[in-house]
Each structure stands twice: as structure tokens, then as C-alpha cells.
## 1
Amino acid sequence: MKSAVMDSPRSRKEELGQFLTSTPVADFMASLFWALPKKVRLLDAGAGAGALTAAFVSRCCAQREGVRVIEATLYELDVEILEALVETMHECEQLCAAAGIRFLFTIHSVDFIQETSARLSGGLFGSLTPSYDVAIANPPYRKISTDSPERSALRWVGVETSNLYAGFIALIHRLLLPGGQLVAITPRSFCNGPYFRAFREDFLTHLELRRLHVFESRQAAFRDDGVLQENIIFHAAKGGRQPAELLISSSSGEPDGSITETDFAFTDIVHPHDAEKFIHIPSTAGHSAAKETLAGLGSSLASLGVTVSTGRVVDFRLKGALRQEPERGTVPLLYPCHFNGGTVHWPIASGRKPNAILDNAETRPWLVPSGVYLLTKRFTSKEERRRLVACLFDPETVPAPWVGFENHLNYFHAGGRGLERDLAVGLFAFLNSTVVDQYFRRFSGHTQVNATDLRTLAYPDCGTLRAMGRGLQALDVAQAEIDQLVDQHLHGC
Ligand SMILES: C[S@@+](CC[C@H](N)C(=O)[O-])C[C@H]1O[C@@H](n2cnc3c(N)ncnc32)[C@H](O)[C@@H]1O
């Protein structure tokens, strides 16, 4: 198979979201389909050089499961890869001919989003009805802004999403016949977070999940292209209800790596009362144990009288008010770089970020009154051991009447004011514990921690948190010590 895109410049590949599926991953995806009809109408949207259709065809030819005809419809926008795609389709024809299968293909060299949205909405090009038995996809990944042509087109069919891949999936399932099957590899980002809320609702309403597979290594699935994305593969069918149980599997992503499989109650994957419809993916024993632990906790953040918000100082909007060093008329400005082993180290001399912000009528709405606050990073680096990194802001070490928390932080507060100290330290221990990190990893495949994610967690009650807070002697303690303390208070051991 030709690999024209491998040579194309990186920026062009990024613009097209062009990251090709390796043969072992494509074969694995093709193996996930359940029973197929005699005549399969296959959709491959964003076909690239045709790796996914080729894997599907190989499966049908090898398994001899009664498929007699494959009619493949492929959409690919990039004219430079079309020659490679046509060549792959001819290889598929030959493979099918040898296996006694009739293979027909149609390539649409058009924009799948524009064309399909217009046709599904009965617009310019006439109407389109669901007509596929099977779809296989590795859709392009790219953010689409609110005023982009893709967003407008998707709105014609009632789809609201900020990433191209989710738009592809939403359109693909609209083109499936009832019972039609979809296997796709996508970023895991749609499983949590507020931006994909509408997409999750649409997805879970129209598709019955049958299998989720997660790659343990962040880079494994697209290592050739050096893409840093945690990806999942899912198998789903159009319509129906969600199953009672769902098979979750995981692998390292290495070609010969072993696959671990576990059945979970579907209610463990999407909690029935979760308005956000997070999709949890427990892939290790630690994830399951964490679920058990958090299931035993009865408090919500709101019931504790605590709120978590995103830092209000958006630095580029208040550029004129920022100061590298504290001076008369300024108050402390805190960034993640001020985190220092559980507490805040401020100011940082010769740091890259400003340490202070003017306190005046313009900036005051973005500041908070001094007090004890718990801070968490919104973005952790890959190297960081935990996704959740919390530190305590203590006015005794950073004295000032007001303080600014920059937008890359989340801060826990009580109605806009500081927290009671023991409660804040208890929350510090809880959020920095391994068990909460493991729980978090069940639903989040990326290094971003949204305030919504923190709001949806279950928390110990006030008394337990305060006791944990009193039990923690210092904040720069080893992970094992935090885990032991949290364990002791949650399990009494
Ligand atoms: C992630 S790649 C996957 C390619 C192939 N399916 C594979 O798995 O190797 C996505 C493909 O979608 C194509 N693409 C991007 N935007 C598109 C659009 N709006 N309509 C059709 N194809 C598009 C890209 O050129 C790219 O080849």
C-alpha cells in the first residue's frame, strides 16, 4: 500500500488530521465487528490510503463468514492521497476475487462534513437516508471553532461539537441502518469534560456500545506519526439499548502485546444518575478498586459548602496590570509554576511568569479576598505522576488582602471566600491521593483537569475531611504517607 502522506509536511497533515492507522491496529478494529450480512454496505469516511477498508476486506476474506458482496463507499478530501487509495481498493478487489466475494467501491473526493450534513438535512444536494450496514473510521482530529464552516454545516443536522472527529462520528451513525455497526478509533477526550457533553448525549442515545478498548501507552496507537493522544477504539451498533454488561479491554499498543479483557456492568461505565454522562473506562485493577472506594463516599462538593472554579485572571486580557515583581499597589498573582511540593512558593525571582497584579477597580472583579484556598493545576505534564495535583494557598506564607488566581488553575473556595483550614488540608490529602487519581483516570484520558471533573467527584463528609486535615502534619510528605492517611480514614485501616 502506498503511503503518500508519510512524506507530506507535518503542518499539512495536521490541517487534514491525517494520521494513518497501522496495520495491526486496523486488523484489530476489523476483528471487532459481530456477525455481518451477506451483502455489506461499508462506509469509510476520512479513508486516507484505505487501511481500514483493507483490514475489513482481509477479515471477510480470511474468515469466510458468508459475506458475498462488499460495497465500499469512501470519503477522502486530500487529492494527494487518492492514488494510494485507489491502489489499495484494487488490492481489495483482487483479494475478494480470490475469496469469491464481489467487491465494489466508490470514492467521493469531497468534504464529508459539508456533503453529508447538507444531504442529511435535505439541503442543496438532495436528501440522504441511512444506508450502511457497517462503518469503520479513524476520523481526522482537529478543533473546529464556533464560526468555522464545519460547525455551521454540523448545526444543520443538530450536531454541536468542537472537534472534527466528533462531527464525523455523529454523521457516520446517522448514516447507519438500524443495527448497523461502527468501529472507530478516536481520541478519548469525548468521554468526559463539558465540551463533549452534547456529543456524549447524542452518541449514547443513538449507539449501543458493545466494546471499548483502550491503549495503555499514550503514544502506542499512532507512534509512527509521533501523535500524543490517548486513543480508544469502540464498537457500537445503531439503536437498541445499552447492554447490561460491557467488555472493556486494554493493551499496550505494541504489535504483539497481550490484551486484557474485563466485563463491567454498564452502570459502572456510565453512571445512571450522572447528568454529565461521563464514560468511565476502568482498565486496571486499581481503577476498579478506586471505583469501590469512591462509591462508598456520600458527599458532593456542593453538600460540603465548597465550590471549585477556574482561576479568574486571564493574563492576556489584563496585560497592563501584570507586574513581574511585587510592588506597591499590587497583590500576589498565582500560576501553576508557583506550586511547590504541596504549598505555594511565591514570588519566584526571575521566573517566566509575572508574580503580581495591580489591585485596582479594573482588576478587583478578578481577584479573591485572602484566605486558605486549595489550588489544582488544570493541565499537568505527561511526566507528572498524578493527573490531579493540588496545593494549599496559605495567607500566612503569602500575606496580602487580595490574591489573583490565574486561569490555568482551579481553586476551591466557600462562596468566593477562603476555606476552613482543616477542611482545606483534608481536601488536599484526598485530591492528592492515589485512589482519587486512579478514579480520575477511569474517565479522563488526557492531562487536562476541568472544574466540572472535580465537581462530579464524590467526596468524604466534612467530619472525615477535617479529621484527615488534622492528621496531616506537613504538606510536603511522600505519596505513601498521603495514601496511608486517606486509606485509614476511608477504610478505617
Ligand atoms: C486520521 S486520518 C485516517 C486515515 C485512514 N482512515 C486511516 O485510518 O489510516 C483521517 C483522514 O481524513 C481525511 N479528511 C480530513 N478532513 C476530511 C473531510 N472533511 N472530509 C473527508 N476526509 C477528510 C484526511 O485527509 C485523512 O486522510
## 2
Amino acid sequence: MYKDTIVARTTAEGQGAVGMVRLSGDQCLRIIAKLINPVKTELVPRRLYLGKIYDLKNNVIDEITYIFCQSPSSFTGEDTVEIFSHGSPVIINMIIDLCLSLGARMALPGEFTKRAFMNGKIDLTQAESVAELVSAQAEEEVKIAAQMLGGSFGRKIKSIREELLLIIGWVEASIDFPEEDDATTFNRDNLLGRIKNIMDTITLMISSYTEGQRIRNGVHITIAGLTNVGKSSLMNVLFDKEKSIVTPIHGTTRDVIEGTLTISGIRVVFRDTAGIRKTDCAIEKEGIKRTKKVLSQTDLLIYLIDAEKKSVQEDLFFINEFKDKKIIYAVNKIDCVNKENIRWINKIPQYPCFISALKHEGIKEIKIQVENFIKKFTSQKSNLGYTVNQRHYNCLKDGLEFLRKACAEIKQNVSEELFLEYMYDAKNRLSEIIGEISPEDILNSIFSNFCIGK
Ligand SMILES: Nc1nc2c(ncn2[C@@H]2O[C@H](COP(=O)(O)OP(=O)(O)O)[C@@H](O)[C@H]2O)c(=O)[nH]1
Ligand SMILES: [Mg+2]
């Protein structure tokens, strides 16, 4: 248990209907007994009380409600009091100042959650999910973080670690008591089979990372094509506002224009880019360089072709550079040309959508195709959920590598000691995920990213 009693506002900065101040530590009750009137001598935990808060000169500051949670049945595992005042920043600051003057200390970012972790109320993945939940910007991010807060990810890691410990114990016994039959006769194939099962599970968890990242950081969609085909016009239609400058002049868009929408519960970042063409203009050249960089990182490309063009040779040359990407093709300016008269349609690798960004026609079809692409991310969920956190990902990858080495050792029949060393390394890397072995600097870097009051 920590000695200090800490205090912080937990509601957002600025004015609100209600403001909340949280205190945690063994001085909570002593502090509020001096601030709040009436404070019952015997507070029933988890009951909402009504009271008035007074300054040290006995002036009423506010009428408040408050809840006491008794150690260890609280979020932090310590005595905590949560005070709900009116949401003026002045009132909240006055309450915090009073708590400070009565011996509390200002909480550091994430310190309440760190205490919950240190006091064994939650594992490290659950602590991290608190920060994820607070910063979530789309429904799917909330779902993943909530799943992790529920502890399912941590439990999976724990069960893998238990299995590793069983195997380690089994092999260690064979070294320590070589004459005992059941210990010495451990079967190498059986051993390898059990480790392989663990490796398969870890591989699945690792493979969900790329998709997990997309959910966490947003799916990236780039609108690309030659100059003047209507890319910026499409961007503006999708966002229903003039985000990008539209003119009949080729090479108008120079920089990458970005906007975010939420589609099927996932954040989607759309980018409008400079059209590709040969140019001597240094600024446009830089724009095209940026376009190519953005394209190499995009998840999906919406490739626009001008319906009025006589040939798509230039387009095909460009498309070829990005043939590994998922592409939605769209033929724009269909208000000017009858689609039956477009002779090059069959040359496009995939049947396109026909649209008019100017007349807002065919946009629904593009949106449906985008939505179908996005939905894949929400429907492919394995029962292990997603690995979204880079720290977890790195630990899983290292753990897998140690298991590979351990298997190689067993296959070559070389040294049980070396095998055990790799197994311990693997187990330790997994234990780091849930915080069972976590150097102080890792913990500090995790909790310093939290906001104060969490
Ligand atoms: N007729 C017609 N003109 C369009 C359409 N979409 C864009 N334009 C025009 O094409 C020109 C280039 O558009 P812009 O969006 O700037 O193209 P970008 O260079 O690809 O970004 C502008 O004059 C637009 O008004 C369309 O669907 N139909
Ligand atoms: Mg443009």
C-alpha cells in the first residue's frame, strides 16, 4: 500500500454540469471529515451521501454528493472517496486545494490506475485498456478496449504462461530426479506438440495485430488518379464540405488533404492527393512524391479515371505500380459521356463504379464498396480478439522466437539446460505483458501516458 493519499479531478477540464474529484489513500476519511458536513461517523461503503463542503474558515463552497469505497473493495484497492460537485472549474479547484492543504498530494497521470495495478486489482493489460478506453474515437476501438478491460486478453496470456510453467516443471524434474521413471521418460514428441500448440496460439495473436492496428489507428483510404479527374471533387462530396480546392487547372492539389469519418464503427482516414503527371514544377513534384508515399501506406485505394479520356494507357501504367493494393475503380464525369460509349472499360482490371462527383451521382455505390471493405475488419474477429498494443505485440513476438529456439534445442537433442533457458525467456516475456515482470521504467512509461485523474 502507498502512504500518500492522492487527489485529482476526474472530469474533463472546463465547465460542466457536474465535476468529480477523486481521493485515494488511507487519509481519505480524515480529510473529508474536515471538509464535508455532515459526515456520518460510520459511512456505509458505496452509498451516495448528500452534504455541504466547507472551506477552512467554515464558508460553504458547494452542495455535493459523495461516495466512500472501502479498501480493498475499490478501483485502486485503497480507501477512496469520490466527490461530485457542481461543475465549475473554480469549485473543483477549491475542493482540490482544500484536500491538498489537509495532507493529500496531487495525483500523477495514471496514478489511480497504477495503484489499482500495484495493489493487484487489475493486470497490466487491463490498466492499459483504461487509457485506451479514455482515448477511443470509434465504436470498434471501444469494444476492443472494453474486452481487454474485462481481462480476457490477460487471462489468455496467463493460461499460456501456466502451460509453459508446467512444461518447464516437467523437464526440470527430469533433470533433478533422473532416476524417477515418470520424470525421466518425458516424451520429446509430446513436448514438441505441446509447445507447437502454444506457438500456434501466439502466432494467431500476433497475426491479429495488423488488423488491430487498423482499428486503433483508422483504416487509410487514398483517392488517387491522374490530374483533373475529380479526386478533390469526390473528397468534398464524401465529406459534404469544401475540404479540397477544386479548379479546372491541372495540378491544383499539391499537398495531401486528410479527413476522418466513422464507418461501421471504425475510424476511416480519407486522403486526397496530388494527381500524377510529368511536371517541371518543383512544388507539384514534391506533391507527387507525397502521393506515392501515401499510396504505399494506404489500405485501400479509390482510383479515379476521367470518363472523357480517349485512352487509359497512362492510368494502367500508374495502376501497375500499386497492383498489390486493394483498389476500388471509379470512372468520374459520367454526366459528360454515355458509359456505353467508353471503349476502354474492359482494359480496367476490375469493373468500375460510374460516378459524377459534380452531380453527386453514383457516390452511394462507392460508399457501399468502402463499407464492405471496412466491415471485413469487424467480422474477422477471432475468439482471441485483437492484439492492438505494440508492447504486447513485441513481447508476443519475442516469446514466439524463444519458443522456436527451445524447439530447435529439443529437436537437436542437445542440452536440456539451454532448452529450459529459452523456455524461461519465453515465459518471462509473456509475464511482462500482464505486468508480472515489469521493470519500473516500463511501468512509468505506460502510466505517464494517462491523463491525470485516471
Ligand atoms: N463534368 C464534370 N466535371 C467534374 C466532375 N468532377 C470534377 N469535375 C471538374 O473537373 C475539374 C477538376 O476537378 P478536381 O476535383 O479539382 O480534380 P483533381 O485534380 O483530380 O482533384 C474541375 O473543374 C471540376 O469541376 C464531374 O463529375 N463531372
Ligand atoms: Mg485535386
